[in-house]
Amino acid sequence: RREKGDPEVNDLWQWVAVLEGQLRRLQKAFSQYKKEVNVLRQRVGILEGQLQRLQNAFSQYKRAVLFPDGRSVGEKIFKTAGSKKTFQDAQQICTQAGGQLPSPRSAAENEALTQLATAQNKSAFLSMTDIRKEGTFIYPTGEALVYSNWAPQEPNNDGGSENCVEIFPNGKWNDKLCGEQRLSSREV
Ligand code: 293
Ligand code: CA
Fold first, then answer.
1. ipTM, interface predicted TM-score of the complex
2. 77 contacts 187 by C-beta, under 8 angstroms
3. Pocket of ligand 1 (CB under 6 A)
4. Counting runs of H as helices and runs of E as strands, what totals does the chain give?
5. Model confidence, pTM
6. How far is the CA of 172 from the centre of ligand 1 (A)?
7. DSSP H helical segments within the chain, as ranges?
8. SS3 100
Protein backbone atom coordinates (compact mmCIF):
# COMPACT_ATOMS: atom_id res chain seq x y z
CA ARG A 1 0.00 0.00 0.00
CA ARG A 2 1.33 3.39 -1.07
CA GLU A 3 1.12 6.76 0.72
CA LYS A 4 0.30 10.13 -0.90
CA GLY A 5 3.60 11.72 -1.98
CA ASP A 6 5.04 8.29 -2.68
CA PRO A 7 8.32 9.11 -4.53
CA GLU A 8 7.67 6.35 -7.08
CA VAL A 9 4.30 7.90 -8.04
CA ASN A 10 5.91 11.35 -8.26
CA ASP A 11 8.49 9.95 -10.64
CA LEU A 12 5.69 8.57 -12.80
CA TRP A 13 3.89 11.96 -12.90
CA GLN A 14 7.12 13.59 -14.01
CA TRP A 15 7.64 10.98 -16.67
CA VAL A 16 4.10 11.55 -17.99
CA ALA A 17 4.82 15.28 -18.25
CA VAL A 18 8.02 14.59 -20.21
CA LEU A 19 6.17 12.27 -22.60
CA GLU A 20 3.38 14.85 -23.12
CA GLY A 21 6.00 17.45 -24.03
CA GLN A 22 7.64 15.12 -26.51
CA LEU A 23 4.25 14.27 -28.02
CA ARG A 24 3.42 17.97 -28.56
CA ARG A 25 6.78 18.57 -30.24
CA LEU A 26 6.26 15.58 -32.51
CA GLN A 27 2.74 16.73 -33.44
CA LYS A 28 4.06 20.19 -34.31
CA ALA A 29 6.91 18.78 -36.37
CA PHE A 30 4.50 16.47 -38.18
CA SER A 31 2.09 19.24 -39.10
CA GLN A 32 4.98 21.38 -40.40
CA TYR A 33 6.14 18.40 -42.42
CA LYS A 34 2.64 17.98 -43.92
CA LYS A 35 2.56 21.68 -44.87
CA GLU A 36 5.94 21.35 -46.60
CA VAL A 37 4.79 18.28 -48.51
CA ASN A 38 1.77 20.24 -49.76
CA VAL A 39 3.96 23.16 -50.87
CA LEU A 40 6.22 20.72 -52.73
CA ARG A 41 3.22 18.98 -54.31
CA GLN A 42 2.04 22.35 -55.64
CA ARG A 43 5.47 23.18 -57.04
CA VAL A 44 5.74 19.77 -58.75
CA GLY A 45 2.31 20.39 -60.27
CA ILE A 46 3.45 23.74 -61.65
CA LEU A 47 6.65 22.18 -63.07
CA GLU A 48 4.67 19.34 -64.67
CA GLY A 49 2.48 21.92 -66.38
CA GLN A 50 5.50 23.86 -67.61
CA LEU A 51 7.15 20.65 -68.90
CA GLN A 52 3.97 19.67 -70.73
CA ARG A 53 3.75 23.09 -72.39
CA LEU A 54 7.45 22.91 -73.40
CA GLN A 55 6.98 19.43 -74.85
CA ASN A 56 3.97 20.59 -76.86
CA ALA A 57 5.84 23.67 -78.09
CA PHE A 58 8.86 21.52 -79.03
CA SER A 59 6.89 18.99 -81.04
CA GLN A 60 5.07 21.82 -82.84
CA TYR A 61 8.47 23.44 -83.53
CA LYS A 62 9.86 20.14 -84.90
CA ARG A 63 6.83 19.69 -87.18
CA ALA A 64 7.34 23.21 -88.55
CA VAL A 65 11.12 22.99 -89.05
CA LEU A 66 11.27 19.42 -90.40
CA PHE A 67 8.70 20.00 -93.11
CA PRO A 68 9.15 19.00 -95.91
CA ASP A 69 12.75 17.76 -96.11
CA GLY A 70 13.45 16.43 -92.60
CA ARG A 71 12.36 13.43 -90.54
CA SER A 72 12.71 12.86 -86.82
CA VAL A 73 13.04 9.28 -85.56
CA GLY A 74 13.87 8.58 -81.91
CA GLU A 75 16.67 10.98 -81.03
CA LYS A 76 17.91 11.14 -84.63
CA ILE A 77 17.05 13.67 -87.32
CA PHE A 78 17.53 13.07 -91.05
CA LYS A 79 17.54 16.05 -93.41
CA THR A 80 18.15 16.14 -97.14
CA ALA A 81 19.82 18.97 -99.04
CA GLY A 82 17.76 18.05 -102.11
CA SER A 83 20.75 18.10 -104.47
CA LYS A 84 22.78 15.19 -105.87
CA LYS A 85 26.48 14.89 -105.01
CA THR A 86 29.27 12.34 -105.24
CA PHE A 87 29.88 10.42 -102.02
CA GLN A 88 32.95 12.51 -101.23
CA ASP A 89 31.16 15.84 -101.75
CA ALA A 90 28.04 14.68 -99.86
CA GLN A 91 30.23 13.48 -96.98
CA GLN A 92 32.10 16.79 -96.88
CA ILE A 93 28.89 18.85 -96.88
CA CYS A 94 27.51 16.76 -94.00
CA THR A 95 30.58 17.01 -91.83
CA GLN A 96 30.90 20.74 -92.44
CA ALA A 97 27.26 21.14 -91.38
CA GLY A 98 27.97 19.38 -88.09
CA GLY A 99 26.49 16.02 -88.96
CA GLN A 100 27.28 12.96 -91.03
CA LEU A 101 25.82 10.93 -93.87
CA PRO A 102 22.85 8.83 -92.75
CA SER A 103 23.53 5.53 -90.94
CA PRO A 104 20.11 3.91 -90.53
CA ARG A 105 20.57 1.51 -87.62
CA SER A 106 17.04 0.11 -87.42
CA ALA A 107 13.95 -0.50 -89.55
CA ALA A 108 12.39 2.65 -88.03
CA GLU A 109 15.40 4.81 -88.98
CA ASN A 110 15.51 3.24 -92.44
CA GLU A 111 11.81 4.01 -92.88
CA ALA A 112 12.29 7.65 -91.88
CA LEU A 113 15.13 8.07 -94.39
CA THR A 114 13.13 6.21 -97.05
CA GLN A 115 10.38 8.83 -96.72
CA LEU A 116 12.89 11.53 -97.72
CA ALA A 117 14.19 9.52 -100.71
CA THR A 118 10.60 8.76 -101.75
CA ALA A 119 9.56 12.42 -101.49
CA GLN A 120 12.56 13.48 -103.65
CA ASN A 121 12.22 10.40 -105.89
CA LYS A 122 16.01 10.03 -105.69
CA SER A 123 18.38 7.44 -104.27
CA ALA A 124 20.52 8.80 -101.44
CA PHE A 125 24.01 7.95 -100.24
CA LEU A 126 24.42 6.29 -96.85
CA SER A 127 27.53 6.74 -94.68
CA MET A 128 28.85 3.20 -94.90
CA THR A 129 31.58 1.92 -97.24
CA ASP A 130 33.62 -1.24 -97.78
CA ILE A 131 36.70 0.74 -98.83
CA ARG A 132 38.82 -0.64 -95.99
CA LYS A 133 37.99 -4.29 -96.69
CA GLU A 134 36.08 -5.36 -99.82
CA GLY A 135 32.76 -6.97 -98.90
CA THR A 136 32.75 -5.71 -95.30
CA PHE A 137 30.69 -2.54 -94.95
CA ILE A 138 31.40 -0.42 -91.88
CA TYR A 139 30.16 2.86 -90.38
CA PRO A 140 32.48 5.91 -90.44
CA THR A 141 33.40 4.87 -86.88
CA GLY A 142 34.79 1.56 -88.17
CA GLU A 143 32.03 -0.39 -86.42
CA ALA A 144 30.36 -3.32 -88.26
CA LEU A 145 26.74 -2.92 -89.46
CA VAL A 146 24.06 -3.50 -86.82
CA TYR A 147 21.28 -3.31 -89.41
CA SER A 148 21.02 -3.68 -93.18
CA ASN A 149 18.29 -3.67 -95.82
CA TRP A 150 20.06 -4.84 -98.97
CA ALA A 151 18.02 -5.30 -102.17
CA PRO A 152 18.00 -8.91 -103.44
CA GLN A 153 21.44 -10.00 -104.75
CA GLU A 154 23.13 -6.94 -103.17
CA PRO A 155 25.79 -6.01 -102.35
CA ASN A 156 27.25 -7.38 -105.61
CA ASN A 157 30.30 -5.12 -106.09
CA ASP A 158 29.21 -4.74 -109.73
CA GLY A 159 32.17 -4.10 -111.99
CA GLY A 160 34.48 -4.79 -109.06
CA SER A 161 34.49 -1.29 -107.57
CA GLU A 162 31.22 -0.51 -105.77
CA ASN A 163 32.34 0.66 -102.33
CA CYS A 164 29.51 3.05 -101.38
CA VAL A 165 25.85 2.40 -100.52
CA GLU A 166 22.71 4.01 -101.91
CA ILE A 167 19.21 3.71 -100.47
CA PHE A 168 16.52 3.53 -103.17
CA PRO A 169 13.22 5.45 -102.85
CA ASN A 170 11.73 2.06 -101.85
CA GLY A 171 14.10 1.82 -98.88
CA LYS A 172 16.26 -1.05 -100.19
CA TRP A 173 20.07 -0.72 -100.28
CA ASN A 174 22.50 -1.21 -103.16
CA ASP A 175 26.26 -0.94 -103.21
CA LYS A 176 27.20 1.68 -105.79
CA LEU A 177 30.18 3.56 -107.21
CA CYS A 178 31.19 6.35 -104.83
CA GLY A 179 31.71 8.66 -107.82
CA GLU A 180 28.03 8.50 -108.85
CA GLN A 181 25.82 11.45 -107.95
CA ARG A 182 23.19 10.66 -105.35
CA LEU A 183 20.87 12.60 -103.05
CA SER A 184 22.86 14.26 -100.30
CA SER A 185 21.32 14.06 -96.85
CA ARG A 186 22.54 14.17 -93.33
CA GLU A 187 21.80 12.87 -89.87
CA VAL A 188 22.29 14.69 -86.58
C1 293 B 1 24.15 -5.50 -112.02
C2 293 B 1 22.95 -6.42 -111.86
C3 293 B 1 21.70 -5.59 -111.58
C4 293 B 1 21.94 -4.73 -110.37
C5 293 B 1 23.16 -3.86 -110.55
C6 293 B 1 23.49 -3.05 -109.32
C7 293 B 1 24.60 -2.06 -109.57
O8 293 B 1 24.00 -4.67 -113.14
O9 293 B 1 20.61 -6.46 -111.30
O10 293 B 1 20.79 -3.90 -110.15
O11 293 B 1 24.27 -4.68 -110.83
O12 293 B 1 23.86 -3.90 -108.26
O13 293 B 1 24.98 -1.45 -108.37
CA1 CA C 1 25.39 -3.09 -106.50
1. 0.97
2. yes
3. 154, 156, 158, 162, 174-176
4. 3, 6
5. 0.84
6. 13
7. 7-66, 87-96, 107-120
8. strand
